[in-house]
Amino acid sequence: MPSLVHYPLDPASRLIRLMCAEYGVPLDLEEVKPWLREEALLELNPAASLPILFTDAEMPIVGVLASIHAVEDFYTPEAVGGLFPAAPLDRAEMWRLAEWVLVKFDDEVTRYLIEEKIAKRDQRGATPEPSVLRAAKANLNEHMLYFNWLLASRNWLAGEEMTLADFALAAHFSTLDYMGDIDWAKAGSETRDWYSRLKSRPAFRTLLNDRVVAMPPSKGYADLDF
Amino acid sequence: MPSLVHYPLDPASRLIRLMCAEYGVPLDLEEVKPWLREEALLELNPAASLPILFTDAEMPIVGVLASIHAVEDFYTPEAVGGLFPAAPLDRAEMWRLAEWVLVKFDDEVTRYLIEEKIAKRDQRGATPEPSVLRAAKANLNEHMLYFNWLLASRNWLAGEEMTLADFALAAHFSTLDYMGDIDWAKAGSETRDWYSRLKSRPAFRTLLNDRVVAMPPSKGYADLDF
């Protein structure tokens, strides 16, 4: 069985878990906290980033871009097709939004909130820095406006097909939602409907059962009707 | 003819220019300064990131991930094969290092130096912040050690084949080298030899003629024997 070195609330790890679940590929999970930069992790990946995927091959697949392509190469069920659209321009739109989420959204929102709210729990005496939390939340609001604008004119994030871009954003949303950082009462209804559709997929179940020690998820995290 | 909205010293734009040159695809170039966030750029790409590739299709290809895949899909010469290795595990190693360069190296080194040394020239009265320059250079030194360690045991960055990962790192190096931020006297000989091989490729010529107004390149930037 393939296995994944992951952290439960790491959005890149969640994306690969979602893809594997969608494709019916069971995964053994091994948990690691990347911010501790432990020797065992650095030996696998000197970048200390996640996820790291072990397929049946001898070599680990390191990082989210390598893992996305490996899952798509190795595990796409022929009958249903994968999460990459067949038409080149649809794929380009998917990559545009995948990059938006994996690089820009992560850089402006998610990684700050994970650093402040989760990684700092492992530093004695460290507490979240309010100015950083405020900046990340202000950025999140801007991104939410854009996603809502997009989803008002299309069924899925990158067009009329569900793609990798949807899974990437849903992975980030699920992490933020666990930490209580998405205010669904204020979110646009298009975004809320879109997330509700994704959250109802069987592939999502594995994420909704995740629990981090001494940090229960926000109310509504696992509710399909949130 | 395809065209590219780019900035001459933007490493992501340089990567796509290198790929197109390697594949024999001429490009019309349109220059833009992304940090000015001008309306014309935001209309094409609300993320205000580069590059943006116009193929013969009606829709622009936005961002570096979308452009990499589009160039590979549309323009790979069948006779020579592309910059993605054929074997899945070799591709995984290519993506690991492409992500290292496009995300980690950019995030820890290149984007700070571009912001401080180039973008700030367009802000009246702004000057480069010495502490940021120092941190970026310290990070650069760490990355150089890793690249040199890798290149001591393999011909190319991701293995025995030249791949996208080589072009990605060479694009970043060429930007840093233009600004005089690589100390070749101190760089490991493996890295220097590797860059010399890439710089000698015909595809590289287009980059070596770039000039930024009122900012001449460092001595040795365009020399093949540097």
Automatic annotation (TrEMBL), chains A, B:
GST C-terminal domain sequence ranges: 87-226
Pfam families in alphabetical order: GST_C_3, GST_N_2
InterPro entries, per database record: Glutathione-S-Trfase_C-like (IPR010987), Glutathione-S-Trfase_C_sf (IPR036282), Glutathione_S-Trfase_N (IPR004045), GST_C (IPR004046), Thioredoxin-like_sf (IPR036249)
Subunit description: Homodimer.
Protein name (record): Glutathione S-transferase family protein
Species annotation: Devosia honganensis
